[in-house]
Amino acid sequence: MPTLSQLGHVLTACKIVGADRWARAAKLGGGDLATTLDVLAAFTPEWWPDGEPGEAPPGLTDYQRGVIEHWYEGGADNVTRQLALNNFLMLEKLGQGGQGAVFKARQLNPGRFVAVKTLTQDTESGRARFEQEAKAMMKVRHPGVARFYLYERVRDALGKPTDEYLIALEYAEGTDLYRLVQRLGPIPWRFVARWAINLLGGLAVIHENGFVHRDVKPANVMVIGPPPEPGVRPSQSAAKLLDFGAVKPAALVAAGTGTRRIFVGTREYAPPEQWAEQVVPASDVYALGGTLFEALTGRPPYEVPDRDAMLFRKAHARAPIPDANAHNPEVPVALARVIAQMLAKRPEDRGTTAELIAELQELLPKEDRAEPPSEHPTRPAQAVASPRPAPPEPAREPDPPDAATGILAFIERIYLAPHLRPAAGHEPPAGERLLVLLRQPLVLVTIAVFVGLLLLLVV
User: Fold this and answer.
1) pTM for this one?
2) 325 by DSSP, 3-state: which?
3) Pick from 1, 207, 172, 23: which is nearest to 102 by CA?
4) Are strands 161-170 and 88-96 parallel, antiparallel or unpaired?
5) pLDDT tens for each residue of 267-282
6) How far from 48 is each of 15, 86, 109, 173, CA to CA, in Å?
7) Each residue of 173-212: pLDDT tens digit?
8) Three-state SS across 397-431?
9) Is residue 111 helix, strand or coil?
């Protein structure tokens, strides 16, 4: 079991605290781990400069505390590796994928919040290709794309380079589109159209630099600004494209890299050609069309049992293109046509990003239209002040609480993760909440067991 003295060495080596701060916390903690961590959390971080915009974070985040407590229980071999990488302090784990983990982190020099993604490149050819692509991605600058800051090899405790790389991206503070739709249901069309303009502009710049994203989906779109609720205007929000772990040069993915075919992308949004690894820039337009369809209707363009890969492939290649207006009558017919065009089976029928942006701009009132693409990098999202809210519009009278609503909320607490539960006061209609529950495998298993028991009782 580690000692407090060892913990102090780790935290000062990682630069989470200085020696004087640690000595004070250890004294106030009286030799107790929990009390010492409470004291550290109560401090303002030493790396937080005076006058920096925004609220100062705690001196020890929940993620950092969890890593330390796990280490004390004997469950972590390399606690330093989990708390700091090179010049970055890991503050929060945002996700884990097949290629690596993603963290919210604090870069110490220059001081800024970033999203750090770790990747393993264990061959010389892999390293050379990764470095070439990373250098090119650093040139991509557009308000609709999270800026690619830097990449570097991760160093071990002795400063020796490892086979692992880290990528530092702009940290965009907001809610990803997948969670937003899960929470609110279909999004008002003017917000979606404005976000589409942001994202199409970002894709245009990515494509101009010779890349294809290959995994555009709701979870990789960050919505910045207040959620689309009564009193909020579309001009107060924006959208950014995230996660470039699947990005590849267009020429490379179009030509193929060998005889082995590996599907890259997400089944619900991948166009027909992507299933054969014949990806082109228009493939991103298709995936964005599917993403926008889900934002407008609350469901992906095609739904198949058990997310079966072959059934999805057939649906994208042969099934009729769905009509967003048919699934949500509040979607204007003209916007539904734009989405259907983006979901065309043939890449050449989807239109260019410039043509689609022009069509979407025409659909929106002038006050809701997105700004023209900027050649200058955007400031980090957390440093941008939110516009003054517009006067609230009359809100729909909420339904009075009843027993059914209470039961539904109780079931959601059992079966849904906290980030999927509707926020109090912003619950979508009961029907939409039931649809979210019915998408959870555990709910379906419970229903099957209940029906089985009923059948046994009847027999």
Assistant:
1) 0.72
2) helix
3) 172
4) unpaired
5) 999 999 999 888 999 9
6) 12, 18, 12, 18
7) 899 999 999 999 999 999 999 999 999 999 999 999 888 9
8) CCCCCCHHHHHHHHHHHHHCCHHHCCCCCCCCCHH
9) strand
